[in-house]
Amino acid sequence: MTVREGSDTTPDVVSDGGARRRELARLRDRLTALHHEAKAAEVAAAESISAVHPSHRESAANIVHYCALRAHDLRDLQLDLSAQGLSSLGRMEAGVLRNLDAIIRILDDALGDSGPAAGDPEPGEGHPLAENAVTLLGPSPARRPTRIMVTMPSEAAADVDIAARCAAAGMDLARINCAHDDPAAWRSMAAHVRAARADIRVAMDLAGPKLRTGPIAAGPQVLKVRPTRNLLGEVLVPARVWVGDAPIRSEVRDAVPIGDPAWLAARSVDDEVRLIDARGRRRVLRVLEITSSGVLLGTDRTMYLTPGLRLWSGDGPTTQIGALPAAPQALRVFAGDTITLTADLTPVTPTDDGHHRLGCTLPEVFASVREGDRIFFDDGKIGGLVSSISGVSSISGASAPGEAAEIVVEVTRAGLSGTKLREAKGINLPDTELPTTALTADDLDALTTVVDIADLVNLSFVRSADDVADMQTHLAELDADDLGLVVKIETMACVKALPSVLLQLLRTRRVGVMIARGDLAVEAGFERLAEVQEEILWLCEAAHVPVIWATEVLDHLADTGLPTRAEITDAATGNRAECVMLNKGPHIVEAIGSLDRILSRMTRHIDKKRPLLRRMSAWAPRVD
Questions:
Q1: Which of 360, 339, 342, 520 is nearest to 412 (CA)?
Q2: pLDDT in tens, 164-186
Q3: Residue 52: phi, psi to the nearest 5?
């Protein structure tokens, strides 16, 4: 290689410069090829893109671009770009072509080429994901971009104070679950939410085709009431029970009815009330509180109460306990047991011989399941394999004449001391293609109320784009096609079909996705959940679709008043989404306040996948 006289440049430096130029040219060629491939995918998907709502055309094109690029393994390209001090495409989701164009322009400049890269973006482009989040979920609070959605308990239909306290703690959206209660209760909850704060939006969940365990015969009518003791057996909180009706807002929920208002009216605070409980144990109780409808009694001893037990005070008249709810029963299942599932929904009686029988609520499962398929109960607490199927025609899927359809499950996973399996618990079959649609007859009945009172509707157990299209058709028939529509992702079938599901969803103006991590964790496997939810977040950001992060967020705090360390970290990760959902619980107000503070703090550090480099005062250099 020739070097000019007097030049400081050495042959090695010239050689290195030539190698770098060739590397930059190679990177530009590869990025240009990806750019052309993304544009070609857009042309191929032109019909699907043109079918979306006009406000989502850019979003539909971007998700097509993103899927085209993610069909390749780009890890080596990312490393090569980073080595040259260039963007590694690690945050390209929101604008695929914009990111490619920006890097190609830099490479062109470095190589001395002129002119903008193909597909140079138009100036003044906004942030469609943020705009879509406001359209669906409402404006974000001042301190945090991530909203908080809270599930309303059944008591919120009668108790207006529940919604008010949740709103004051930081609730931005209220969720009503149509799997529980009835239209009258839903309307009451929605009215209480809007009375608490007019800007809170109401989301309603359709139950969907949830496969659940069948009924279990109820146990005896008995109420066990016991005190809370410390490790030495000393009573910290007495056993307490209301005689009559418990007030709506009371920390003591246990109550036994009596049909004797005069007996209640004759009671005074500190009166002694005596009874002999169901085991023949004599108990002395003291009147702790009196309301217009009941009397609160307390004792330091455990007692079992049943209908007909008599109560008396001094030499006065006696009264007796009325009918009580039957105690719920459960199967206790161990690894090695068998569970036989049937289409018969007659309540079963629990047994202790290791051979359990139980109905299931979707008869379609019997025609679809195969031997060796995995099956899980109650969010994965119990797992097993289908060992045999009987009474089902392999051709028609119908029951054989004179033989009931049954599936025998060999239990491979349960607690060491057994795991309780109750009625109405979820059943997951991750290996089985179920011939069901997302909308059930009950959902369609509920939908007439939903479109009247809700701001957005959550569609459960979506498996394909057809499920979304079916929902859109029904909303249009109800003149509610502008109702916010949220797809709940809780099956792996939906994850695999997510690009087509999102393209179909974008035909509606106000859209969102909920990552329902309960069923999804069972379907994907707990080890894969983090990976799968990350992929969902990427794809939704590429489609500019806001995400609701749901299931078990601060559940321990909401239930017990104390959080676990793991759930605090999980809640902090939720700021990657546009909304985080809390479930109900006796300490839900504390959970809302904690989540509000966690999200507000994390907003200073993370925006989606991008770390925000705020000044770290703890690391500031000392000045002596």
A1: 339
A2: 999 999 999 999 999 999 999 99
A3: -75, 170
